[in-house]
From TrEMBL:
Signal peptide interval: none
Domain Solute-binding protein family 3/N-terminal residue range list: 48-279
Matching Pfam families: SBP_bac_3
The organism's place on the tree of life at top rank: Bacteria
Organismal lineage: Bacteria, Bacillati, Bacillota, Clostridia, Lachnospirales
Keywords of this entry: Signal
UniProt entry tagged with the keyword Cytoplasm: no
Listed InterPro entries: Solute-binding_3/MltF_N
Name listed for the protein in its UniProt record: Transporter substrate-binding domain-containing protein
Organism from which the protein derives: Candidatus Weimeria bifida
SMART domains in UniProt: PBPb
């Protein structure tokens, strides 16, 4: 079994200084296109890959009370690493705000922590095949009990920033159901989940287009809010992907192949049940959003571009 290399937490300031203080990154690249710090070639021909593990993103990636990295995406990374003979992953715990710029700069090769596919990510990075899914639900007042997207016709939704992952999914659903006319106030800031739910209960909004996991976390200790609201079954699933430095196409291809194998042998489904309390791959299949892992080939690596049109 491989030995995993774990590095301690880096503050955002240190991360920034690491990639702004160097005119040119060093190290080898397995893509042959560029040399970046995140890819160091070893004497045996393998590469040590520095990976950003985002902290504070439970149940996807986080550091537990004993200082150990945990979560669905962290275990997915380890499972992929086991399959890649050419690469050895070195894990570094990083703040979520610091990671994107550092991946672009080549300080880290990639990260994964329930990352949705968005136009900005597709432009700034290359993305993996879906390594997980985020089921999307409709949270409404119990008197309304919305169950399908068509129920949102003429209704008001809790606002989301335009570049938020859920906003992208909402736009995709709206394109699929053009006759559904809902309203959503513009905003550039995130509305806390609890405030959004309170807005639904008070009648300020009719529906929160969100996730059951977030909803359950709010109402688990608040019976009155649970009794006043209804959470639908998933109406769709958003694919979650690894965000990878643009130069590392060979690494992306290797990650994709390993991920497809992990789906086909049932590993991803087991990790999902362990960390997400559900088989999100089965949910994706039921909502007809499951990626075709069996039919994947390298010429389909840019699969996500078609979902953003």
């Amino acid at each position: 079994m491989k030995k995993y290399i774990i590095s301690s937490v880096l503050t955002a300031g240190l991360v920034v200084s690491m990639f702004t203080g160097c005119g040119k990154a060093s190290g080898g690249s397995a893509s042959g296109k560029s040399s970046i710090a995140a890819m160091q070639k070893n004497s045996d021909g393998t590469y040590t890959v520095t990976v950003a593990v985002l902290d504070g993103m439970a149940p996807y990636t986080y550091t537990d009370k004993d200082g150990k990295m945990q979560g669905y995406d962290f275990e997915w990374m380890k499972a992929v690493d086991e399959k890649l003979k050419k690469y050895k992953f070195k894990y570094v715990s990083v703040g979520a705000d610091a990671a994107p710029a550092a991946i672009q700069a080549g300080t880290y090769a990639f990260s994964a922590s329930a990352h949705f596919v968005t136009p900005a990510r597709a432009q700034q990075f290359i993305l993996s095949v879906p390594e997980s899914y985020y089921p999307v639900n409709l949270i409404s007042r119990k008197a309304d009990s919305f169950k399908k997207f068509e129920d949102l016709d003429g209704k008001s939704l809790v606002p989301n920033p335009p570049n938020d992952g859920l906003s992208v999914v909402l736009k995709q659903m709206a394109a699929k159901y053009p006759n559904v006319k809902y309203t959503q106030d513009p905003t550039s800031e995130y509305i806390p989940y609890e405030d959004g739910l309170k807005g639904v209960i008070s009648g300020k909004y009719d529906c929160w287009f969100g996730g059951k996991a977030m909803y359950d976390d709010i109402v688990k200790n608040n019976k009155s809010e649970a009794d006043a609201t209804y959470c639908s079954d998933p109406i769709t699933c958003a694919p979650c992907v690894a965000v990878i430095n643009k130069n590392l196409t060979d690494l992306r291809d290797a990650i994709n192949t390993a991920t497809c194998e992990l789906y086909k042998d049932g590993t991803l489904q087991k990790l999902s049940k362990k960390w997400l309390n559900d088989d999100v791959f089965a949910t994706a299949k039921n909502t007809k959003t499951l990626f075709d892992y069996s039919g994947y080939s390298k010429d389909k690596a840019n699969w996500y571009q078609s979902t953003l049109k």
